Amino acid sequence: MSERFLWYIPNTVEPGHRGDDTTTGWGSIEYSTELARTAERHGWGGALLGTGWGRPDTFTVAAALAARTSTFRPLIAVRPGYWQPAHFAAAAATLDQLSRGRVLVNIVSGLDDPAAYGDTDVDPAHRYARTREFLRLVRRLWTEEDVTFRGEHFQVTGSTLAPGPYTGAGRPHPTLYFGGASAAAERVAAAEADVQLFWGEPLDGLAERIDRLRRLSEEVGRRHRPLEFGLRITTLVRDTTEQAWHDAEQKVAAMAGASQEQTWTGNRATAVGQRRLFELAGRGEVLDTCLYTAPGRVGGGGAATTWLVGSADDVAGALDAYRALGISHFVLSDTPYRREIVRIGDQLLPRLRGRVGAS
Prior knowledge:
Layout: E1 4-9, H1 29-41, E2 46-49, H2 58-67, E3 73-78, H3 85-98, E4 104-107, H4 124-143, E5 147-150, E6 155-159, E7 175-179, H5 183-192, E8 195-198, H6 203-219, E9 228-238, H7 241-258, H8 272-279, E10 286-287, E11 291-292, E12 307-311, H9 312-325, E13 327-333, H10 337-347, H11 349-352
Parallel strand pairs: 1-2, 1-13, 2-3, 3-4, 4-7, 7-8, 8-9, 9-12, 9-13
Antiparallel strand pairs: 5-6, 10-11, 11-12
């Protein structure tokens, strides 16, 4: 099993994302290019690019970054409903050819601002059914010719891509990542995704989910290679354990001081994964060896709800425990992004690259 280590580029126009202190150039292609090139120099295989209405279009930014780098792999977050599958399959295959196989894809089903871009389907069950069709059709368009598909949500007749995706070395098409913790989401992942992405839950919870997803893969009649697993999490790394926890507590105090109320609203009513993360604080402030749950109480959301905190050895040990569960894809980050991409790349990644094929 090959391993992949990616960073995160927020892709926002407003500064201050998750406490980042950058002001000059934030949100520009020059700044995003600097982050991507820094990732290349400091051991990262690429980066997840944030998506959302009101941000720069993620695919356009990915294409620009691929043109300005040589090894950087953009993990492009896309939403069915924003894209039609044939349109996306063609665009991604073209970029994959131009970049010689560097495209990665993260399919997002969660609600954003669908009415703003004309997506009228907001029912969770329908959205996951649509995502499953999207994944299935995109994969077929990447691997077959003369595709005819009649689904509930999408239809194509006699469709052939030209060019198709870049192939070679056992890679038939760009890797399809997918996240989601609900029962419906897990069935989509088990049937059609290449990689199920998790947020930073304790080991016992992820072990249960991995076992369930493997069983589901058999239940739904998975037709592809075995499902792989990934972790998207904040990693606060310092030279010593003591310094790391001091800085983590200072950052949480600053987050709390910015608002006297819980600022993370999230989509806890319907987003099962976000709700699971938020509720972890009830089990304790520190879980496993160094999983810090306090950020979620004071405004941390998504991948910043829980942090792995410690020295590079501490955090590497924690990530090794996730690896032992079968997790082989890692999307890590901390802020300020420009500084931490170097620190974590130089201090943490060498400790994690003990296996052949890491990228």
